[in-house]
Amino acid sequence: MGLVETKLAIIPGAGGTQRLPRTIGVSLAKELIFSARIVDGEEAKSIGLISHVVEQNEAGDAAYRRALALAREFLPQGPVAMRDLYGNIFLGIVFGVNDELLLCSLQTIPTKDRIEGLLAFKEKRPPRYKGE
């Protein structure tokens, strides 16, 4: 994994100069961009660039299987909140914490799923979300 554009005398695109500093910090982002150094999975994880490193299996689908395991963890959550959270995480970075918290609240307060989640918690049972 690396930003090789510097070796080609061009500026990294696809958000490399905007997203990378926000993800791993300005100093380390500059080092990687200026050097065009390729990092392996272990280093990428240690600097916070990726979340998981998996050993490849015989079928060649270890990353896919890890992604499925994560998806299974996400699946039980309220679908309306999950849909809106994805974009709100980025909005929180751009606009700040208070604006993002207000936006999240406004999106989920009127939903039936929110009521179901609260009831399920109170009744100590798994929620049965409907995406409403």
From TrEMBL:
GO molecular function: enoyl-CoA hydratase activity
GO cellular component, one term: mitochondrion
Keyword Lyase appears in the UniProt entry: yes
Alphabetically ordered keywords of this record: Lyase
Any one Gene Ontology BP term: fatty acid beta-oxidation
Keyword Lyase in annotation: yes
Superkingdom, taxonomy of origin: Eukaryota
Cited SUPFAM superfamilies: ClpP/crotonase
Protein name: AU RNA binding methylglutaconyl-CoA hydratase
Organism: Buteo japonicus
